[in-house]
Amino acid sequence: MIATTTNPIRVDLKLIADLVEPRTRVLDIGCGDGALLDYLYTFKQVDGRGIELSMAGVRAAVSQGLSVIQGDADTDLKDYPSDAFDYAILSQTLQATRDPKGVLENLLRIGRRAIVSFPNFGHWRNRLQILTQGRMPVTESLSYQWWETPNIHFCTIRDFAELCDSLGITVEKSFTLDTQGRATQHPVHSRRANLFGVEAVCVLKR
Amino acid sequence: MNNETDPGISHNLAVSHGKTVTLGGDRPIRLACGTELGPFTVAYETYGTLNEDRSNAILICHALTGDHFVASPNPLTGKPGWWHMLVGPGKVIDTDRFFVICPNVLGGCMGSTGPGEINPATGKPWGLSFPVITIGDMVQAQVRLIDHLGIDQLFCVIGGSMGGMQALEWCHSHPERVFAAVPIATSYRHSAQNIAFHEVGRQAITTDLDWHGGDYFSHGVKPHRGLAVARMAAHITYLSEPALHRKFGRSLQDRDTVGYSFDADFQVESYLRYQGSTFVDRFDANSYLYITRAMDYFDLATENGGVLANAFRDTKIRWCVISFSSDWLFPTSESRAIVHALNAVAANVSFVEVNSDKGHDAFLLDEPEFHDTLTGFLEGAVEHRGLPRATKKAPR
To answer: B372 — contact with chain A (CB < 8 Å)?
Structure first.
């Protein structure tokens, strides 16, 4: 069954959903079980497609009537034509890709805009854990031990901002979420954001 | 003129063939080989009722040795329809809501025009004088059937294996007549390995002395042994090593020790022999040659300048591509190639690989993940097509 959304969605997904214009075309990369796509379809009449690595996620999404394929951000984005979507969304996935730079470039080739969210390795608690314990940070938002984490390309918000600069990508809007999940809009180069943001959500434009 | 008879009786197999219709009498179809064919007969079954605006029709395309008895008992074997688990009132393909059409393919042997039927021009079975047909030709015949039934656009075309090839062909050659498509356990072109297996089957048939150059009818015999061996070889490709091992292992048949002979010592041998022997009772050897050839010739990429995406340019169809993890005849990589081509044209596509250890045959079996996927996809398509939603969630 499609569009049965009654449950609240994750706070970062809600923030992303609020950034999407109604009745647009959206590609959600790493869409999980399709919660965001379902929400966007129900509340914004979006023409949405998804890519998800895990077959369990894909099956859950397709069984709800969503258009989702099993695929990989690193290898499968190259197939899509340029300008095929209004938004290419990559939520909490960039740090798990093999080639984040290539993925970013593809997002902004396929979509007129990209919305990217990622955990901020520069958050003060991460800095403090390394400084005081000398160990890789393990926190609520980064809950894996170093030897099991799928997150192979961590960055801070500042790192991300500099990569965007070097690729000529404009950060139109950027938000951080704090430990309570509250969103604040900051300039992406803000020191404060890089220190206090647990997670960043950025709207990117070519 | 189209003449409809119900039920139809085949010339070579004296059983009821459900509905039959003669088409192409005034306007033959032009086959890929260049020959014109018409009039020709299509045997088919329908289930459910066509709605007022004729928008709820689902075409189901059968596989190599399938037939049009998708949901009702096969009159020849008495067995339930080959997809009875999936198609019927309240089922995944709900005949209370959809009008389901399943035709026997051109070249088949269950009532549609094929090499075993009488050539009206000679009054004798076609045999090898029947033109070599392609998947595209089968679809041409189906298009005429859909015209005859007064349907402009099919709500969905669904097919597994060779049926999936037909579904792909429909979407390529008649995209405006298809709203949604579900190619299952299939490929956009028959692989070298699959052509090789088919050739083994064809050699088994044509080297059977009872084949008589395809003219066995006039000799009052049938190439039973060759066809049975073809079926045995093919049957292995429909299964998987784990499935065979689970079912039979190295268990012996009706004995405690090996017999030091070439009898069917092992259960798996006995099983294959049984599969071969029952197959010859329901299938025509020449049909087997023609239909396997049609699959071999299928190649949507080469037909479209070597780029599969060209076959589906500007497609508006909602797609759901499904494969099975243990299928080595039409492996997931083939489905993935279809999905990549559809991505390249920004098509609306879903793709699921179902976990199963049952090999290619999984698409015919009770696989809950597969059924859930299909249910969800059809529900989504129903909503987008503006058809009435299910009043209750279909079972599973």
So the answer is: yes
- Confirm whether B327 is a catalytic residue: yes
From the list B161, B187, B326, B335, the catalytic residue is B161
Q: Which of B68, B172, B198, B360 is catalytic?
A: B360
Q: What is the pLDDT of residue A12?
A: 87
Pick the CATH number of B3-192+305-385 from 1.10.1040.10, 3.40.50.410, 3.20.20.80, 3.40.50.1820: 3.40.50.1820
How far, in whole angstroms, is CA B339 from its chain's centroid? 21
Task: Give the CATH number of domain B194-293.
Answer: 1.10.1740.110
Is the pTM for the entire model greater than 0.80? yes
- Beta strand A85-91 with A25-29: parallel, antiparallel or unpaired? parallel
Whether the predicted pLDDT of A2 surpasses 90? no
Could you tell me which chain B residue has the CA closest to the CA of A38?
Answer: B380
Residue of A nearest to B377 (CA): A65
pLDDT of residue B392: 55
Q: Thinking of the domain A11-121+155-205, which architecture would CATH place it in?
A: 3-Layer(aba) Sandwich (3.40)
ipTM: 0.88
Looking at residues A80-96, what average pLDDT do you find?
Answer: 96
